[in-house]
Amino acid sequence: MKYYLIAGEASGDLHASHLMAAILREDAQAEFRFYGGDMMAAVGGTCVQHYREMAYMGFTEVIAHLRPILNNMKNCQKDILQWRPDVLILIDYPSFNLKVAKYVKQQLGIPVFYYISPKLWAWKEYRIKDIRRYVDKVYSILPFEVEFYQRHNYTINYVGNPTVDELAIRLYANESFAQFTAAQHLPDKPIIALLAGSRKAEIRRNLPRMIKAAQGFTNYQLVIAGAPGIDADMYEPYLCKGRVSVVFDATYRLLAQSSAAVVTSGTATLEAALLHVPQVVCYAMPGGELAYNFFKNILKIRYVSLVNLIADREVVTELLVHHCTAERIGDELNYLLHDREVHKRVMEGYSEVARRLGKPGAPQRAAQSIVEQLRAKK
């Protein structure tokens, strides 16, 4: 059967690639065509457009790139119509994907599945209407989403969380600290990991204050996790030989060897938790306290990090917008590194998060359901 997938960012590329591999185990004749990235391409099929050409962030950046965004949409719709797949599988990226879902339902009437739900529980809850109209099935990777959708009379499947799978099968799981530092040409010195986001705007806003906050910990080296799709030149201005370094294609390896981490909100917070790395979550953005209060009023959630959302309590400290200062980040790092009670409390919270997420197998469970439904329609 023919599967068309759309992933608009690095994390979507990762999760979609594992779903594709799982689909191949269920349907050996599967053909893939997709908007995505290198990891999806490694599984096989045709990459129509790379997510690097689609990842625009924030109102200003979207407006500035409105023409290419509209062209991407038009080209995607045309490509799907010409290829005529058996199913459309969407991975997060709702502003783009829900419009494509509407078009495909109206023009082709094929099944539309969502793997990794849009974060409707955080904001833009009205999008549930589009989910009802144009999406046949949602495969959720966050356990609390089941109750949210139930309140809107829409039944979804919680299949588990793919990050659990990705960590379970990761390479270098038994790597020692000495092996890691030697392989990455790093000093033999404890590490504070810096994960500043996957988009250029996020990196520019967050990385300087992360570095400033962590530089006071002179017994540690600072190592940046280079984001997929971001050129090394982007990080060059922030590097200081022997003090601040960057590694690429080694985020899990870096986290596993780190004493603590400073992480922008996103999937990385969950990765750090499942690897038992004490972390402070931060997210800087323009607008200061005014922007903070604005988003506080429109967001329908108490927390922004996946760790706290899944635990339904504060496990890790979140420093957002005007609270995201080098001084505050440094204070939290100090607690994580030197206060045993704080460290113990965070680790206990991580254990609760892991329990709620459940066992590995998310991509395979989703793939089995998708293929079964398609075969039933044949």
Write a compact overview of the structure shown:
This protein has helices at 10-26, 38-43, 58-64, 66-83, 94-107, 128-134, 145-151, 162-168, 177-183, 200-214, 251-256, 267-274, 288-298, 306-311, 326-338, 340-357, 362-377, and strands at 2-7, 31-36, 46-50, 87-91, 112-115, 137-140, 157-158, 191-195, 221-226, 244-248, 260-264, 279-283, 317-320. With 378 residues, it is α/β, with parallel strands linked by helices. It folds into 2 domains: 2-165 and 360-377, Glycogen Phosphorylase B (Rossmann fold); 170-357, 3-Layer(aba) Sandwich (Rossmann fold), CATH 3.40.50.
Overview of the structural elements:
The protein has helices spanning about 10-25, 40-45, 60-65, 65-85, 95-105, 130-135, 145-150, 160-170, 175-185, 200-215, 250-255, 265-275, 290-300, 305-310, 325-340, 340-355, 360-375; strands at about 1-5, 30-35, 45-50, 85-90, 110-115, 135-140, 155-160, 190-195, 220-225, 245-250, 260-265, 280-285, 315-320. The chain folds into 2 domains: about 1-165 and about 360-375, Glycogen Phosphorylase B (Rossmann fold, 3-Layer(aba) Sandwich), CATH 3.40.50; about 170-355, Rossmann fold (3-Layer(aba) Sandwich). The longest helix has 18 residues, at about 65-85. The radius of gyration is 21 Å and the shape is globular. The protein is α/β, with parallel strands linked by helices. The strands form 2 sheets. It has a 7-stranded parallel β-sheet with strand order 3-2-1-4-5-6-7, sandwiched between helices. Strands 10-9-8-11-12-13 form a 6-stranded parallel β-sheet, with helices on both faces.
